[in-house]
Amino acid sequence: MVRRCTDGWCARFMERHYSALNFALLVVGYILYLIIGAGIFSAIELPYEHDLRQELKAARQDFLNNNTCVSDARLVELLARALEASNYGVSVLGNDTDRNWDFVSSLFFTSTVLTTTGYGHTVPLSDEGKAFCIFYSLFGIPVTLFFLSAVVQRIMVLVTQRPVSYFHRRWAMSRSKLAAIHATCLTIFMTLLLLIIPALVFVNLEKDWNFLESLYFCFISLTTIGLGDYVPGETHSKEANPHSQLYRLTITIYLLLGLVCVLVVLETCCELPQMRRLRQRFYEENVRELDSETTNIIDREHMSDQLTDLSDGVPVIPSVSEQAASLRQHSKSPPYTPASGSAANRKLR
């Protein structure tokens, strides 16, 4: 008897706090994902870091042994000054030919700042530049997000909504299944167009990069991670890169267009009915009920081809907004109550 009551209490507790428990599991899972990732990165990279430190110590000692006129303190001072300048995007190599703040380079910098990519290889040198960067980003980043959302919404209509609606009418296939197939095909196409093909191009243009490094740069850039360890066009040889300005301008256009395409793919995947159902597990009760209503409407759209237009016989599929408005109107209308006999008699008289 006690066990039965305990099981019933547990079942009621699980049902009452379903979304909260799922959210707690999501938080714990994400923290574990961070911890596992940190452990793997530490296990992989720590030996390489140790070897590099030993190599640098050996190179420094070898230089001092071969140049006895240079003291260790003066060498450390020179290296510290060179590293400080390198952190600001100024290298001791090729200072006469390389420019970080011409117009095209500045355009590349503003695009990486406003899209929050931020490679970090070029940063403002002056206090005025740092102050303007704060002011410029404070207004520019929200405007960029608004601009990208507007562009993505318009592209979504052409790339996702219209093709899915067309094939839904043409093939009479379930909209949820058709949306999943479309999202998969779009992801594969964009991967080839934005990652594989540009990586092959960078392999030929950047002589020091292999395919993995080129693919790594494309992925890190288009996901706005922007670590800055690989930046194209940073060669200090005019013979290796004779059209550096045009090259950097082309990369700027590629990054902006690529970011828009990545956002379209992500929005397409997030709007899948399967993803909506998954998100409902972690919502609050009222939000989950509202989103469940929208999901049910989308799931029932594949049956709406039975409603035909009498003029041309083409199936008419009501939009989600129209069906939601109809449901709200029916839910707000008062229930029907039959009139009493005396009231009916008065109306007849």
TrEMBL record:
Residues 323-343 have a biased composition (Polar residues). This is Potassium channel subfamily K member. Keywords: Cell membrane, Cell projection, Cytoplasmic vesicle, Disulfide bond, Endosome, Glycoprotein, Ion channel, Ion transport, Isopeptide bond, Membrane, Potassium, Potassium channel, Potassium transport, Synapse, Transmembrane, Transmembrane helix, Transport, Ubl conjugation. Residues 323-349 are annotated as: Disordered. InterPro entries: 2pore_dom_K_chnl, 2pore_dom_K_chnl_TASK, 2pore_dom_K_chnl_TWIK, 2pore_dom_K_chnl_TWIK1, K_chnl_dom. It catalyses: Cs(+)(in) = Cs(+)(out); chloride(in) = chloride(out); Na(+)(in) = Na(+)(out); Rb(+)(in) = Rb(+)(out). SUPFAM superfamilies: Voltage-gated potassium channels (SSF81324). Glycans are attached at N95. The chain crosses the membrane at residues 21-44, 134-157, 178-202, 214-233, 245-266. It is a multi-pass membrane protein. Residues 97-155, 191-269 form the Potassium channel domain. Homodimer; disulfide-linked. Heterodimer with KCNK2; disulfide-linked. In astrocytes, forms mostly heterodimeric potassium channels with KCNK2, with only a minor proportion of functional channels containing homodimeric KCNK1. Interacts with KCNK3 and KCNK9, forming functional heterodimeric channels. Interacts with GNG4. Identified in a complex with PSD and ARF6; interacts only with PSD that is bound to ARF6. Interacts with UBE2I. Belongs to the two pore domain potassium channel (TC 1.A.1.8) family. One of its GO terms (molecular function) is outward rectifier potassium channel activity. Pfam families: Ion_trans_2 (PF07885). One of its GO terms (cellular component) is recycling endosome. It comes from Seriola lalandi dorsalis. GO terms for biological process: stabilization of membrane potential. It is found in: Apical cell membrane; Cell membrane; Cell projection, Dendrite; Cytoplasmic vesicle.
